[in-house]
Design brief:
single chain; alpha/beta; 6-stranded parallel beta sheet; 5 helices; 6 strands; 26% helix; disordered N terminus
């Protein structure tokens, strides 16, 4: 599922509670204008209608494409990913990028796993490709994929507070994720 947008659609999943929120916002912010759909629940950044509303009533013209630059967030509401795919494809056709925040394996499309890199005995075991987020220095990733720069507290606070940082090496590093093959 790619849409006509320049970047397409990618889902993001992380078991880490902070990364599960920050990662989709960072991926979305890396391309400037994008839509984050919160299928995992819990983001309080979106307001108004939900993806479930769009599935039932159809999207309004102003919802099909961005009305301004930046990151928009759409809560999912009570709808399953498989039931929302036609609407997500409609949105992806007009938005430059769509990021779907997911938990578990409920997303049928490309999903980017995001893993924290803990040191010592907390280090993850060998695994497949992921985006790796160092928590401490000196930890090597146990699988392929980009290693992000440190996530600074200021960037975290801004993202979790609903504000996109104007400059961030961490957000800029996310841009490479769009060009990698994810299954």
């Amino acid at each position: 599922m790619g849409g006509m947008g320049r970047f397409g659609v990618l889902a993001v999943s992380s078991r880490d509670p902070v990364l599960s929120v920050a990662a989709p916002l960072g991926l979305a912010a890396s391309v400037g204008t994008s839509l984050v759909i919160d299928m995992a629940g819990g983001l309080r950044l979106g307001s108004g209608r939900t993806l479930a509303d769009l599935v039932v009533d159809g999207p309004r013209l102003d919802e099909l494409s961005p009305g301004r630059q930046g990151v928009a967030v759409l809560a999912s509401g009570p709808v399953r990913a498989v039931d929302a795919l036609p609407i997500i494809e409609q949105l992806a056709a007009r938005w430059p990028a769509v990021v779907v925040r997911v938990s578990g394996d409920d997303w049928p499309g490309a999903t980017v796993p995001v893993e924290p890199l803990y040191p010592g005995w907390l280090a993850p075991l060998d695994r497949g490709a992921a985006v790796w987020q160092p928590v401490a220095s000196g930890t090597r990733p146990p699988g392929p994929g980009p290693v992000l720069p440190r996530l600074r507290p200021r960037t975290t606070h801004q993202l979790l507070g609903g504000h996109m940082p104007s400059r961030s090496r961490w957000i800029e590093a996310w841009r490479q994720v769009w060009s990698l093959p994810w299954a």
